[in-house]
Amino acid sequence: MERSERGITGLETAIILIAFVVVASVFAFTILSVGIFASEKSKQTALSGVNETQSTLRPTGGVVALTDLVSGTSSVTRLKFTVGLNSGSSAIELTPAWTAAVSGASPISAGVGGPTIISYTDSRQHLSETNWTVAWLGESDGDDILEGDETAEITVWLQERAGDDTFSVGSPGDNFLDNLLTKSLTFSITITPSVGATFELQRTIPASMDTALFLD
Q1: Residue 106 phi/psi, 5° resolution?
Q2: Would you say 90 and 195 are in contact if contact means Cβ atoms under 8 Å apart?
Q3: What is the signed CA dihedral for 79, 58, 131, 184, rounded to 10 degrees?
Q4: What is the extent of the structural domain holding 20?
Q5: Neighbour tally for 5: CB within 10 Å
Q6: What is the pTM of this model?
Q7: Together in a domain, 75 and 34
Q8: 74 bridge partner residues
């Protein structure tokens, strides 16, 4: 009887082994790439969440309420407060939608505002966007970007100013208060910057009114 013996050579074995190694390498590279991409996306999401929840702006003092006669009633017409940046925070654009002139019949004129929004709320009314101006205290590089150790003084205009010392109740829809802010009333100012979490300033007007009220 004739015996038939068949097998594979060493070369064929090497080719098969190389093929398995190549396929395994491609598969492993794909898995690693997907894992690295997913890890990077998770890191970016986490950092983004931290930036959104971390407060960027901080108040650097109390709130000053300035009062005037409005329709014969002593009421708060402007609120002033100062803000700075928290340590390590990114710069914040504070381009206001309004500018206040030194004098004139219409000292507040409309302009193009930035992304920072300041809203007002009390027990009788809510303004989702107020008319506010900004002045820079101490060192400033001349732009409307709050950065480094700069300090910005923000003035929120609650009533329309018709002259240098003359205020009147604004018309509906013009971002001024329809109801006067007077003694013993509580209000809150909410600042929503372009980056970071919002923060709120809540104060109560004292029972006795004066030209300037420091609300600590």
Answers
A1: -125, 80
A2: yes
A3: -30
A4: 1-53
A5: 4
A6: 0.72
A7: no
A8: 69
